[in-house]
Amino acid sequence: MLKEKVKEELEKIFYQLFGEKPHFNLEIPPEGFGDLSSNIALRYSKVLKKNPREVAEDIVKELSKNPLFQKIEVAGPGFINFWFSKDALLGILKKILDLGERAFEKNIGNSLKIQFEYGSANPTGPFTVGHGRQIVIGDVLASVYEILGFDVTRELYLNDAGRQIDLLAYSLWVRYNQVLGREDLEIPEDGYKGEYLIDLAKKLVEEWKDKYLNVWNEDVKKIFRKRALEEMVKGMKKTIEKIGSEFDVFYSESSLIEDGTVNKVLEFLREKGYIYEKEGATWFKVSKFVDEDDKVLIKRDGSFTYFLTDIAYHYKKYERGFKKVFDIWGSDHHGHINRMRAAMKALGISEDFLNVIIHQFVTLKKSGEIVKMSTRAGRFITLNDLIDEVGVDAVRYFFSMVDPNTHMVFDVDLAKMKTMENPVYYVQYAHARISSLFRNAKEKNIKFVKGKNLDLLENEHERKVLRKLDLFDEVLEDVALTFSPNKLTRYLEDLSHDFHVFYTHNTILDPENPKLSNARLNLSLGVQIVIKKGLGILGVKAPDRM
To answer: Is residue 170 within 8 Å of 191, Cβ to Cβ?
Structure first.
């Protein structure tokens, strides 16, 4: 990426001139002020005891002969504005044409073993749209980290232990009895009332007839618990496939109890003096590590809290050899972060091991109205429903295009539009339009030769597209650094916009000028390669026809 080259050249020249290793910003300035701008002279004028414009002019004098630049100017109080040379910009296009999608692979991660955990849920019902947002965010970030050279494991944690699964089992048993005609039973207030359990109950009546009518005991609970879990997990996996996601590992909470990991963690914390008994419960000294109240690990009735099994799960991640883990949680888990950091410290695990990415909730808007939903009451649109209504491409793109830290209003009507107003359609159309160009070139007998005649690309529209192609590398790194998939969708929309403008204002296929046509087809192909790669990272199709 050209920005990195400018940074290296600036650092080298600055050190030669002033004997200092500088720290400075390189920003994209407003239109007309160059391709990049730096504040380096302003930052160091006091240290160097020189006027900032004078510092800037000294730097420009040394850099002006560098073939990377077409022009360098000092602006205002001492900003340095850079315009890239045509050769520098064409070098980016040549690399993309030569290497295709491999042009963006890097080894920043040096095969560091990391894990992304996302989509984790209580297997008590279908995935909600909120789960969908989390799955897509996790998918995109994991894909970007892979491109940057990390060894990534994608994992989903199943919260299949604890009271909520007992409630699920009882709720299913009630539905089963209701299907068999019993009218005096009701699902408890904190049970699960969704239609999906009625459908499953009907299935069980077909299989089991009235075998468990009016019969509820520990053995029956285990039977209903096991079957409910199997069916819920099966449904979750179908939805994961439907949304175009793949997980390397499905990790069970109950396995941590069964394999002794929970007890191992308890013994370790007890030996270190980090847990104590109070009011019949077992507590962890959270307050010893962070400014927060102590938390219960084992309740009075002897059952484990979610906090305890989560500590055990993260200890297991560490044991499995991950150097860093990235957990994607809904904003309702925000209060869980500090206590988990406290637990990692107590276990002697480094502070940079656990990284938490929080995302806000999703609401749906249809016909200009917010859709009211309640998961407990069973009134909600499932992720499956949303995919069926708007399509998987729109679901994945829309979930990606809003900053995870921002509450999302998913506009269902916009997502269904087949017009340029719909951002996913807009980007996909740019890809399809380029495929159409190549089909039309064949019909017009315009020969395409990859990598030839590129020096004919020199007008303002072409230059703008070339400059935008150079930014793709930087955008991917920024997505990884800030955990913001929306920066990728924004980039793809900007690139598509610049291409659509170039397409509208230039004759790309001109039989009277085959060399210029070839140059512009090469530029179009470069754009198509980047759009296809970007959409691929998002898990969105790049169609050749629309």
So the answer is: yes
Q: Which CATH class is domain 118-245+360-416?
A: alpha beta
DSSP 8-state secondary structure symbol assigned to residue 121? B
According to DSSP, the residues that pair with 72 across neighbouring strands are 82
Query: Within 10 A of 358 (CB to CB), how many other CB atoms are there?
Result: 16
Q: How does residue 375 score in pLDDT terms, banded at 50, 70 and 90?
A: low
SS3 call for 274: coil
Cβ-contact 193, 245 below 8 angstroms: no
Domain boundaries, the chain: 2-84, 118-245+360-416, 423-538
Going by the DSSP 8-state scheme, the letter that residue 357 receives in this structure is E
Question: What was the pLDDT predicted at 380?
Answer: 77
Give tens-digit pLDDT for 417-435: 999 999 999 999 999 999 9
Stated pTM of the model: 0.94
What is the C-alpha separation between 139 and 270, in angstroms, rounded?
38
Q: At what angle do helices 195-208 and 163-179 cross, to 10 degrees?
A: 60
Nearest to 117 by CA among 80, 165, 158: 158
- Residue pLDDT, tens place only, 229-238: 999 999 999 9
**How far does CA 473 lie from the centroid of its chain?**
16
φ, ψ of residue 272 to 5 degrees: the values are: -80, -10
Which residues, listed in sequence order, are joined to residue 114 by a DSSP beta bridge?
A: 152, 324
Locate 144 and state its tokens.
């970007």
Nearest partner of 393 among 235, 545, 535, judged by Cα: 535
Strands lying side by side in the sheet with 249-252: 249-252, 151-158, 113-117, 324-330, 354-359
Rounded percentage of the chain residues whose pLDDT exceeds 70: 99
Average pLDDT over residues 492-519: 98
Residues 119, 116: Cα–Cα separation, whole Å: 10
What end-to-end distance do the CA atoms of the chain give, in Å? 32
Q: Which CATH class is domain 423-538?
A: mainly alpha
CA gap 524, 465 in Å, rounded: 9
CA-CA distance, 337 to 356, in Å (whole number)? 7
Instruction: Give the right CATH number for 2-84 from 1.10.3470.10, 3.40.50.150, 3.30.1360.70, 3.40.50.200.
Output: 3.30.1360.70
Domains 2-84 and 423-538 share a fold: no
Instruction: Render pLDDT for 249-308 as a digit per residue (tens, 0 to 9).
Output: 999 999 999 999 999 999 999 999 999 999 999 999 999 999 999 999 999 999 999 999
DSSP 181-226: T--S----TTS---HHHHHHHHHHHHHHTTTTTT--SHHHHHHHHH
- The conformation of residue 128, written as its DSSP 8-state character, comes to B
| pLDDT exceeds cutoff 80 at 412 | yes
**Amino acid making up residue 389:** E
